[in-house]
TrEMBL record:
Highest taxon of source: Bacteria
Stored Gene3D superfamilies: NAD(P)-binding Rossmann-like Domain
Keywords noted in UniProt: Oxidoreductase
Name of one Pfam family that matches: adh_short
Residue ranges of every copy of the Ketoreductase domain listed in the record: 7-196
Keyword Zinc annotated: no
Record protein name field: Putative oxidoreductase
One Gene Ontology molecular-function label: oxidoreductase activity, acting on the CH-OH group of donors, NAD or NADP as acceptor
Example GO biological process: fatty acid biosynthetic process
PANTHER family named in the record: 3-OXOACYL-[ACYL-CARRIER-PROTEIN] REDUCTASE, SHORT-CHAIN DEHYDROGENASES/REDUCTASES FAMILY MEMBER
UniProt similarity note: Belongs to the short-chain dehydrogenases/reductases (SDR) family.
């Protein structure tokens, strides 16, 4: 595992699921943490846990689809720990159902959070990194959390899959745009993990059948992302940018 001491990391969607998992992981690796989400209470409980274990962490209210909220979160991060040099754009939502039955409100929520929210988070983070002279230090790290559905087709996931395909291409474009500013942008595409968002589905008969259809007939553990996530956010990944990396326990093979 690569050391993250001296890094200040903003993690979006940190009130549950992978965001909460990454917070605990990065705390163990020594990063200063700024946890952002719309639900503040779960993050405050997590911050108390992390601090009890010696970590430096704060929680900030954050709606990634609101530019003012994103700016305020990064302002709070800088006030607490100084310039942010690491971003994990993890916040995401879904709305299962056939496209003919997906209301416009759900479609807007998916794209506002999964695409616009990722763009705003990465863009504001990059502005701060450039202002802190990332071009000279080469320490800027932005990690976007996508999904294997970006490369798949299936019933009930068209809007979500399209939003995650946008995330993958956005990651490549931002990497190219900021490559000379010392900012590395990479994307991890996980497979299906038992997070809060997916829990109810995988308790249904159809969800259980989906698990049985995977090559290894199991859900992927969140820990399977740990090594790559830490590497991509560490100094060791100096020469890696523009990558879209699938880690899915062979679910898509």
């Amino acid at each position: 595992m690569h050391d993250l001491h001296g890094r200040t990391c903003l993690i979006t969607g940190a009130s549950s699921g992978l965001g909460m998992h990454f917070a605990r992981l990065f705390a163990r690796q020594g990063a200063h943490l700024v946890l952002g989400a719309r639900r503040v209470e779960p993050m405050e409980t997590l911050v108390a846990e992390l601090r009890a274990n010696g970590a430096e962490a704060i929680a900030v209210p954050l709606d990634v689809a609101d530019e003012t909220s994103v700016i305020a979160a990064l302002d709070a991060a800088e006030s607490a720990f100084g310039p942010v040099d690491t971003i994990i754009a993890n916040a995401g939502v879904t709305a299962a159902g056939r496209s003919t039955e997906t209301p416009l409100s759900a479609l807007k929520t998916i794209f506002d959070t999964n695409v616009i929210g990722v763009f705003l988070t990465a863009r504001e983070g990059a502005k701060r990194m450039i202002a802190a002279d990332s071009r000279a230090t080469g320490r800027g790290r932005i990690l976007l959390i996508g999904s294997i559905t970006a490369d798949q087709t299936g019933d009930g996931t068209s809007a979500y899959s399209a939003s995650k395909a946008a995330v993958a291409h956005l990651g490549r474009n931002l990497a190219q745009e900021w490559v000379r500013q010392g900012i590395n942008v990479n994307v991890i595409q996980p497979g299906y993990i038992l997070t809060e968002m997916a829990h109810d589905w995988f308790q249904t008969d159809a969800g259980k059948a989906q698990i049985a259809s995977f090559n290894r007939r199991r859900l992927q553990p969140a820990e399977s992302l740990d090594d790559m996530a830490v590497y991509l956010c560490s100094d060791a990944s100096l020469h890696m940018t523009g990558a879209v990396i699938t880690i899915d326990d062979g679910q898509s093979v």
